[in-house]
Amino acid sequence: MPVRLTAAALLALEAVGILALAGWQIVALLGGDTDSIVSSLALIVLTVIGAAIVGAFAVATARDVSAGRSGGIVTQLLILSVAIGAITGEWAAPGIALLIAVPGVVGLVLLVLAVRASAPRRRDDES
Predict the structure, then answer these.
(1) What is the distance between the alpha carbons of residues 101 and 88, in angstroms, rounded to a whole number?
(2) How many Cβ atoms sit within 10 Å of the Cβ of residue 51?
């Protein structure tokens, strides 16, 4: 299987994970575990939009479109920044940070490899 399809599959799984987060937010809203209904609704909408965007990156990466790989790389960097945030602060959770960071690192490596695989060869590389 080409590396770009593996990267696309990981991006698709991350999109599903983001949708699961939106589901969790909906449960919290319905359970009354929020301070502001308006803010909660806005966060749910933004989370669903984010999932759709990551899903679009997955489709574009599978189709070998450069913008999908670029967006996927940015997504992995954002995931890694969330992981760093999870190991710092008053409620640091190193185990959760590791669970977040591993797919981010794997995705980043896969996407960089996909970029390299799709790059045109230079003339001086042919000899």
Answers:
(1) 14
(2) 19
In this structure, the chain runs to a length of 127
- Cβ(111)–Cβ(73) below 8 Å: yes
SS3 call for 126: coil
- Alpha-carbon span 25 to 31, nearest angstrom: 10
Q: Is 1 helix (H, G, I), strand (E, B) or coil?
A: coil
d(C-alpha 11, C-alpha 127), whole Å: 36
Which of 32-46, 74-88, 111-125 has the lowest average pLDDT? 111-125
Per 3-state DSSP, the chain is made up of helix, strand and coil in percentages (nearest 5) of 80, 0, 20
Q: In angstroms, rounded to a whole number, what is the distance separating the alpha carbons of residues 97 and 88?
A: 9
Cα 87 off chain centre by: 19
Q: Look at residue 118 in the predicted model and tell me its pLDDT.
A: 87
Please report, for residues 33, 34, 84, 105, the alpha-carbon distance to residue 39 in angstroms, rounded to integers and kept in the order given.
Answer: 12, 9, 25, 31
pTM: 0.88
Q: CA 97, CA 119: separation in Å to the nearest integer?
A: 33
